[in-house]
């Protein structure tokens, strides 16, 4: 049968208004920050913008609007998380016609110095977790519009984050439903706000099911080099875990590989789960059960919120939380259905 349907058209301010059930003037006020709107109306408009993947055209803005330069401050670029966040941010900034100055640093002093040099080069800044402490971030927000990503809210800043605790609670509850009773968390809650929230979700799930931790959290950094320490810890007599909840997929994937090398079967001997849903997770054998977080959207919304801040919006700065989804594969003990089709991360 021949498909006679018309190709999908790019969303316009009119389709956003229809989708949200508001006037085009209201959509314009929300996106340009020209006048306050109610929180409920603003959320309807933002949900419509997200659903339709709408980005306002520069041609539709007042001529007086000047070109924006954004500073994006990352703790590093290693690992899949920051690379996908960067793609989401830069693609959206590009659609707005904005330039992005990316700052990274291996040490906190490097980042502090680089951010200090940004002050006269950009119109606003985004700070991810691990980039500047709260005191410096609060000071920076007094001179530049500031958006925080994956960090606790601060007065004077916008915050964009994901639902870490809820996703982890659902993930751990799924493990418990498989009969796992000796669960341990691999990650240091003191390292980052996201990890702290995931550990809180882990603890909440155990409490809900009347269980105790098999052992205190294995306090490792969220990178693949931590796998050796994790494997060593779960082999200790005082641990004897039958379920391992890793702070992120990078630790989980590396730990699974190392366990396999040592003759430990996943999930027969120990179930392993992660958080992020990186590409490697679906190509493991067995595939990694994890929580999918919308990292691309995290970057996209950070760019949108900073643009709003630069345009003058100072009201309605409640944290914006993006939902997460549990993705079930074989590492938790569920039947494996074979490899999944690739997902397309890049978006027009």
UniProtKB/TrEMBL annotation:
The keyword Secreted does not apply. SMART domains: HTH_LACI. This is LacI family transcriptional regulator. CDD domains: HTH_LacI (cd01392), PBP1_LacI_sugar_binding-like (cd06267). Keywords: DNA-binding, Transcription, Transcription regulation. It holds the Pfam family LacI. PROSITE patterns: HTH_LACI_2. InterPro entries: HTH_LacI (IPR000843), LacI/GalR-like_sensor (IPR046335), Lambda_DNA-bd_dom_sf (IPR010982), Peripla_BP_I (IPR028082). The keyword Transcription applies. Residues 11-65 form the HTH lacI-type domain. It comes from the Bacteria. One of its GO terms (molecular function) is DNA-binding transcription factor activity.
